[in-house]
Design brief:
Blueprint (H helix, E strand, L loop, with lengths): L7 H21 L9 E5 L8 H5 L3 E6 L2 H14 L4 E4 L12 E7 L8 H7 L4 E11 L29 H10 L4 H12 L4 H10 L3 E10 L3 H4 L5 E2 L2 H4 L11 E7 L1
Parallel strand pairs: 1-2, 1-4, 2-3, 4-5
Antiparallel strand pairs: 5-8, 6-7, 6-8
Helix pairs in contact: 5-6
Length: 258
């Protein structure tokens, strides 16, 4: 496991930096972001992605299933002197919020959700008229699309493509490397919920979303914070080839509208 996954404040700061340098400018190309903007992040974790929006005096709200992550989010935002609302809940248990939102962030979340179509339909109720969603996720077949970097065993956490093994073989491999049963179940759940570009675009069509823009990345913009690598867009030719592109796309950015 990388140290950044255990040092949650450092992870929070990394996400805040990536959001400020890449997410916010990307969104701002297609919609205005002002102090009047209402921002919601679903699956917010400690809330790092919301920091640059809060610094612009936007009204920010974060929702996460983990009560511990929400406690940390409140603590970190208090330390930063930034106002925000954080809610610990399953998003499917929330049918109404106090306000509708101009921008909804869904970063590295959709690949963890089994009922993706239900999810995309459910969150429409939180969008203000003309509101947009920013969705980002790693293409499933990319080298670490299974999030195996969260493994505690240093060797297995650095093995690319092992998540593409059949579930039985993958689970046995993780067990042999000493991963806990809870970790194995988490990684197998990610495998079951895997999200390719083709699947996501089919879901958008089924759920009647319109794609405003999409950007595929060969080097994920967040790698600038993690590994000091300069972000690189996926060459357009590779990005146009269905299925093959998933092996090279470390992050997919979508701006969509209902």
């Amino acid at each position: 496991m990388q140290q950044r996954h255990e040092n949650r404040k450092a992870y929070f700061q990394e996400l805040a930096a990536t959001s400020e340098l890449h997410f916010l400018p990307y969104i701002h190309r297609f919609t205005s972001v002002t102090p009047q903007s209402r921002i919601l992040e679903i699956g917010c974790g400690e809330g790092g992605n919301l920091v640059p929006f809060a610094r612009l005096s936007c009204r920010v709200t974060g929702i996460d299933l983990s009560e511990n992550r929400i406690r940390q989010a409140r603590q970190f935002f208090q330390e930063e002197g930034l106002p925000a609302t954080f809610i610990a809940s399953d998003i499917f248990q929330i049918t109404q919020l106090e306000e509708a939102f101009d921008i909804i962030l869904i970063h590295d979340v959709i690949e963890h959700i089994s009922g993706k179509c239900r999810f995309l339909e459910h969150i429409k109720r939180f969008l203000a008229p003309g509101g947009i969603l920013f969705v980002s996720f790693p293409a499933w077949q990319m080298p670490f699309g299974g999030h195996q970097q969260i493994c505690r065993n240093r060797c297995v956490s650095r093995l690319p493509f092992i998540h593409l093994l059949p579930a039985g073989a993958y689970g046995n491999l993780l067990h042999r490397f000493g991963e806990s049963q809870a970790r194995i179940e988490e990684l197998l759940d990610i495998q079951e919920c895997r999200t390719s570009i083709e699947l996501f675009e089919k879901l958008l069509s089924t759920s009647r979303y319109r794609v405003l823009h999409k950007q595929f990345w060969f080097i994920n913009p967040h790698y600038e914070q993690k590994f000091h690598l300069k972000p690189r867009k996926l060459p357009r030719l590779i990005g146009s080839i269905p299925h093959l592109r998933n092996f090279f796309c470390t992050s997919c950015f979508y701006l969509i509208q209902s």
